[in-house]
Structure of Glycosyltransferase family 2 protein:
Amino acid sequence: MSTNSPTLAVVVPLFNEGAQVRFFLDRLMHVLRTMDVQWQIICVDDGSEDNTLTQLIAAHSLESRIKIIELSRNFGKEYALTAGMDHCHTDAVVLMDGDLQHPPEMLPAMVAEWRSGYDVVYMTRRSRQEARSSRRWGRKLFYRLFRWLSDVRLPPEAGDFRLLDRDVVAAIRRMPERTRFMKGIFAWIGFRQAALFYRESGRENDQSKWKFRALLALAMDGLFAFSQRPLQWIGLTGGGLMTVAILYGFVRAFGALFLHAVISHGELMLLVVAFLGGVQLLSLGIVGAYIGRIFNEVKGRPLYLIRQRYGMDQSSTVKLP
Ligand code: UDP
Ligand code: MG
């Protein structure tokens, strides 16, 4: 490895990964040592409640190129990734999970694509073993909805396992939004993107850290942060309903005036009122979803808080605008 070989940072978000962290780091370093890059590994401990941090500190004391960012609590993977990217000053950054589902052996191929001129190399799953089929259906439904609602195209089966050029990292850092849906952000930024395939290893002793509620919240964030269409529907539905109501009023009034038809239909009214009430509540819910997010942006809270850094320049924190 020469001194002018490119610099590469591998950002790994970790939440309760326990003892297998050491195994993962060993396997990752084994691959990195064969590559012609100056590497470092940035582990972001996302408020783990087990011994993940102890394991990381032990690994750091043996290899100073392993850096640690300890967040003050569990902020979620998207924020852990953001924290990691904010601390990278390398020519390229690789994002990967720390549970060995993303094979480190793919790194040389990713770097080769990047060196041939691509800014983003995203990894596409060949096979995915989902613990529960409800998850699979949920995922399918989400992608279908997203395609329908948003103009941003998400590549299917692409996760957060990817390589980003430093310019791309700089571009992502310029996005100040608090609702961070990384898959959407990655698709939105553009640049020259290449896809590579990989086989996801099994989940035998591995449970997803995502609880159903967290997944649902992520899906909602994705939909509302990258689509304005529900807002437009409110206007359309309201306008449509009003037109129908006016026409219906005219018809009934005409009937009553000229044809002596009986107007009062309590039951019918009840139905109409219930229907309108339902539509109004639904619309309010959609508006509320946006307002909630506006509220989040306006509050201007930091995206994450760091408790401690290990082996890292304390001044390297990049402030968002
Ligand atoms: N993770 C995290 N914070 C969380 C949940 C997960 O940093 O709140 C990390 C986790 O340690 C792993 C990666 O994000 O390295 C992917 O998590 P997981 O394997 O649970 O997700 P899945 O494989 O279902 O996408
Ligand atoms: Mg996983």
Observations:
- The chain has ten helices and eight strands.
- The two ends are 37 Å apart (CA to CA).
- Confidence is low (pLDDT under 50) at residues 316-321.
- The pocket of magnesium ion (ligand 2) is lined by residues 97, 99, 101, 208 (CB under 6 Å).
